[in-house]
Amino acid sequence: MVKESSSQDRNFDDLAKRFKKNIYGGLKGDIRLAVLERDFTDHIPVVPFGAEVRPWRVLDAGGGQGQFSLQMARAGHQVVICDISAEMLKLAEEQVAAAGVQANVQLIHCAIQDLPAQLAPHEQQFDVVICHAVMEWMQEPFTLLPHLLHHLKPAGYLSLTFYNLHSLIYKNLLRTNFKKIINQDFGGSKGSLTPINPLNPQTVMEWIDALPLVVLEQSGIRVFHDYIFNEEHRAREPEQLLQMELHFSRQEPYRSLGRYIHVLARCIND
User: Fold this and answer.
1) Could you tell me where the beta strands, DSSP code E, fall in the chain?
2) pTM of the prediction?
3) Residue from 167, 158, 88, 170 nearest 127 by CA
4) Of 127, 190, 192, 200, which has the maximum CB count within 10 A?
């Protein structure tokens, strides 16, 4: 996760454990990982390592606890996780040790914007750049993509997720919180897990289209789970719920109602 930098992007030192429990834990986390794994499997060729096949270099930018990228470390890839939150990196370090992948993971305590100063010139670019749930916590979210592109090799893959403004509006409509919508009061308050800058997917796609990137997939994450307000109903059939989330995550209009949007793209720079 991106934390406070010179531009005052959000720092999660105070919320690291809440994120681990409320965002990444339980069924919410299972849905998130299932959608990401499905999208990667469908579009990124997986080849066995051998004498002529090298592991990928993977950057998890603002990676926090590294839930998704550590799976790639377990598969033998070399992973760099950068984050400006020391508390989030402590949790990542625990996960790295528990998985026994210390040789495959480098943890760097810095903001994404400052990462070039932490890497040698020959280490600047990566085969895969992951940036999940970061953009919406930035004061100037439109500045993020050029930083990520700087670290992406030609033909490399970018995995981006961001908090969906449409989902937040719809949830407030269902709860009859009309005043928030009238006032366009969408940013979270201090201490809240609601981001400071929920994003319109159309705007983000326009930013992507302006760069040398080709979109391979766009999916919604939690396209209906968060609208089930009865917690007992939400937990009643978790396996079937997860399968329904996967089934509808790429179909409109459900995709556009996902709490998060996942975009998988490939760099077309020569």
Assistant:
1) 57-61, 78-83, 105-109, 126-132, 152-163, 213-221, 260-267
2) 0.89
3) 158
4) 127
